[in-house]
């Protein structure tokens, strides 16, 4: 999370912690808008009071998440044996905090110190070949023995093998609530990771995984690690999304090459062709990531744009008039700033109002668009 988008950390009271959870669970509030609201109002209690006014500016009667809903969530987190971690607490993973859309609040079970150690993400195909599964297990074990924490997504295939090889030096990031095991086949593995490794969830407890949750989970996997290694994957796969997110965050992107005759290797070969580093052993990965200082050798993806402004600017800004510049086609925020001639804070405030009103959608790499609403056709009589 960009430091320019939230205020300096202050002692977290119980009331503020509850207000933060409620703010993040309120309609149309995501990591970016959450951070901007904290920057504008100073704390979550004040932000909740200001939400209705922002919603009205977007021509919508706005209601925050019900208090009873948050009380039930907090109880469910406790019953699951999990804890909350907020973005500005000392134990929040440093590398994860650096990404633009870092989760403001996560729930976790297990040993949080694993996230403070050097981390590498191992990802790949669910329907992986037997050879690739064996390779992922060996890489997981080798990297754990070299002092790395192995991060993956608990999916079938490569993810599960990477966790098993690295155990207990492993972090599982799930797309469901902390109390939901997915996939069901990995229920025992997930519980084992939660008990002896580290299990992380962004979604509220009780949340079943949906398609939109997996890219969000992937950004956490990439954000926790100084590098992401794709073991085996097709060209169109979630693993390549994770690699792309790692590249945009300025992290190392690595891939194991495979046969051009095997479709499940095409994704890795594509990454290497586009600038990922070719690796063939755990030692290659360890050498690449040891002492990583933020300058990756891979050229797979340039870091995404950043928008510099301070909390004071956001608190004092008036929203820019940018409605005419937006369509349902995603556009970069820095392009909106250039074309409008307004300050970054004024443009971001205008985007915030639109998002809270349910009219704006945020995309990867700092792009936004108006929400697409299909036209309803009525048959004439």
UniProtKB/TrEMBL annotation:
Pfam families: DNA_processg_A (PF02481), DprA_N (PF21102), WHD_DprA (PF17782)
Occurrences of domain DprA winged helix (ranges): 313-366
Smf/DprA SLOG domain segment(s): 84-289
Alphabetized SUPFAM superfamilies for the sequence: MCP/YpsA-like (SSF102405)
The name this protein goes by in its record: DNA-processing protein DprA
PANTHER family referenced in this protein's UniProt entry, alphabetically: PROTEIN SMF
InterPro entries found in the cross-reference section: DprA (IPR003488), DprA_WH (IPR041614), DrpA_SLOG (IPR057666), WH-like_DNA-bd_sf (IPR036388)
Family statement: Belongs to the DprA/Smf family.
């Amino acid at each position: 999370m960009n430091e320019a988008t939230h205020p300096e950390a202050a002692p977290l009271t119980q009331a503020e912690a509850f207000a933060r959870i409620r703010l993040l669970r309120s309609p149309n509030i995501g990591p970016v808008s959450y951070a901007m609201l904290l920057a504008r109002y100073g704390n979550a209690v004040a932000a909740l009071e200001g939400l209705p006014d922002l919603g009205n500016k977007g021509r919508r009667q706005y209601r925050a998440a019900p208090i009873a809903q948050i009380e039930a969530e907090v109880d469910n987190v406790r019953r699951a044996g999990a804890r909350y971690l907020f973005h500005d607490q000392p134990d929040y993973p440093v590398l994860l905090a650096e990404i633009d859309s870092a989760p403001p609040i996560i729930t976790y079970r297990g040993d949080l110190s694993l996230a403070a150690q050097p981390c590498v993400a191992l990802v790949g195909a669910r329907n992986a070949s037997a050879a690739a599964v064996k390779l992922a297990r060996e890489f997981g074990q080798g990297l754990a023995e070299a002092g790395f924490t192995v991060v993956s997504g608990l999916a079938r295939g490569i993810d599960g093998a990477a966790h098993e090889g690295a155990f207990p030096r492993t972090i599982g990031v799930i797309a469901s609530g902390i109390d939901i095991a997915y996939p069901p086949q990995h229920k025992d593995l997930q519980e084992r990771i939660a008990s002896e490794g580290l299990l992380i969830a962004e979604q509220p407890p009780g949340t079943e995984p949906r398609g939109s949750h997996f890219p969000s989970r992937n950004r956490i996997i990439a954000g926790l690690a100084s590098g992401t290694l794709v073991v085996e994957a097709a060209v169109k796969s979630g693993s390549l999304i994770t690699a792309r997110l790692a590249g945009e965050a300025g992290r190392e992107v690595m891939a194991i090459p495979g046969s051009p005759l095997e479709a499940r290797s095409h994704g890795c070969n594509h990454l290497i062709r586009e600038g990922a580093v070719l690796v063939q052993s755990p030692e290659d990965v360890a050498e690449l990531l040891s002492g990583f200082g933020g300058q990756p050798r891979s050229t797979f993806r340039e870091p995404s744009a950043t928008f510099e402004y301070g909390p004071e600017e956001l608190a004092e800004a008036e929203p820019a008039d940018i409605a005419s510049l937006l369509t349902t086609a995603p556009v970069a925020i820095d392009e909106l700033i250039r074309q409008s001639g307004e300050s970054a804070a004024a443009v971001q405030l205008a985007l915030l109002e639109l998002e809270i009103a349910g009219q704006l959608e945020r995309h990867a790499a700092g792009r936004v668009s108006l929400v697409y609403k299909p036209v309803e056709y009525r048959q004439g009589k």
